[in-house]
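User: Hey, my collaborator sent me this sequence without any context and asked if I could get a structure. I don't really work with proteins. Can you help?
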Amino acid sequence: MRKLSLLMFGALVGVGATVAINHGKELVSGTAYAAGSAETYRQLNLFGDVFERVRADYVEAPDDSKLIEAAINGMLSSLDPHSSYMSPKNFKDMQVQTRGEFGGLGIEVTMEDNLVKVVTPIDDTPAARAGVRSGDFIVKLDGEAVQGLTLNQAVDKMRGPVNTPITLTLKREGVADPLEIKIVRDVIRIRAVRFRPEGEIGYLRITQFNEQTFDNLKEGIDKLKSQIGSDKIKGYVLDLRNNPGGLLDQSISVSDAFLEKGEIVSTRGRHAEETMRQNARAGDLTNGKPIIVLVNGGSASASEIVAGALQDHRRATVVGTRSFGKGSVQTIIPLGQNGALRLTTARYYTPSGRSIQAKGIDPDIEVVQDTPEQLKGKDATQGEAALKGHLQNKEGGEERGGSQAYVPPDQKDDKALNYAFDLLRGIKVNSAFPPSPSKVVVPN
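Assistant: No problem. I've predicted the 3D structure and written it out in C-alpha cell form, which is a compact way to encode the shape of the chain:
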C-alpha cells in the first residue's frame, strides 16, 4: 500500500511491503547495466566491511539495529529534507496524525516547569466531561509521577485503547490538595477545521490536512449557512496560516469545494508518464461567494496547493505573507513490521503550471503583522529555500527563504484577518471578485 502525502513531519501506518525494481526504463545496454551493478555491489561490500569493523572494534558494543537505522537515515537525508525512514513507532504516530482520531482523553497539553499543563480540554470528550480544566497541572498518571517524562512520553501514556481507564492526579490553582480524576478513554477526533460566523462572514480555519479535513470543512460551511443564512453570507475567510500540510487527496478535495471546473494541481515525477493531473468537479459548496485565503510563512505543502489553485483560478484573493515554499510530494511506502519509507517522488505544480518549490505563494495583498518587541526577528520561518539539501526549482528564478509566520493571539491585533473581514464587508455579493491581480501592500 502506498499513500501520497505532503506532510512536513510525522509518519503513516500501513501493512505489507512492496519492493519495485525497474529493469527497463533507463537501460542503455546490458553492458552498461552490468557495469553499474558491479559498482553498486562494490559500494555495498564497502558498507558491509565498515559495518563489521564498527561492530568488532568500536570502543563500546554498538546496537546493530541503531547502526543500520542511522545508515538508512543518512542515505535518505542526503536526498532532500523530506525523505526519511520512519521507525515502527513514528510510522504509527503518523497514522494517528493523518487519520485524525485516536483512543485518548481529549485534552490539549503543553510542558511547563517539568509538568504537563492542560491548555484546554476538547469539548464533549472524556476529559471535559470529567471536569478537567484549562490551567490544570497533571502531576501523576496512574500514580506515576510525570516529572522526568518528556511531553511525548506523557502523551503516549494518556493515549490508549478505547474503554480503558486512567487516573489523573491534578494540581489546580486555588485548590490546596491534589485532585484525583478517573477517566475512561474514548475515541477522540481531532477537528481539522474550526469555524465561526463573523456577522455576515463565515470564518473557516484549517489547522491540518488529515482524513477528516474535507468532511469537517463541509460541515463547517453547512453550519455557517444555517447560522448566517445562505442568502445573507457575504463571503468566507479561509485561514491557512501556520498549517504545515498533510494529505494530498485532502488538499485536492478542499480546493474542489470552492471550484466548479478546471485543474487543481498536477504532479510530475521522474518519468514523463508519471505526470498526473487532478481536476475539479462541478459543485461549489459556497455557491460562488467571495473567498479570501490567509497564508503566511508557516503555510506549507497542502496549504500551498489550495492557495495556489484558488489564486490561479481567480477564485480567491490571497492575503498575508509569502508561504513556506514546499512544492514536493512524498510517497509513504510501508516496510512491513519495519516501519516505512517516506520518499520524495514528485514535484507539484499549480493550475497555471508554476512550481512553488523554494519560492512559495506570493499573496495578492501583503499584510505584515505588528509583532511584540520580544518576538521581533523571531517571527519568520526559514522557508524551504533555507533547508539544507532542498530540491531546486527547475523553472529557475529567485529562491527565497521564509516570511513572517506570527499570528496575534488576540483577534483585535490580527491585521490580516481584520483586513480580510473589512474587504468582504466592503464588496457587493454580485460584484467582480477578487480585485485586480496586482500586488497590494497594506501600509503599517
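In plain terms: The chain has two domains: 101-189, 193-441. You can pass these C-alpha cells on to your collaborator as they are.
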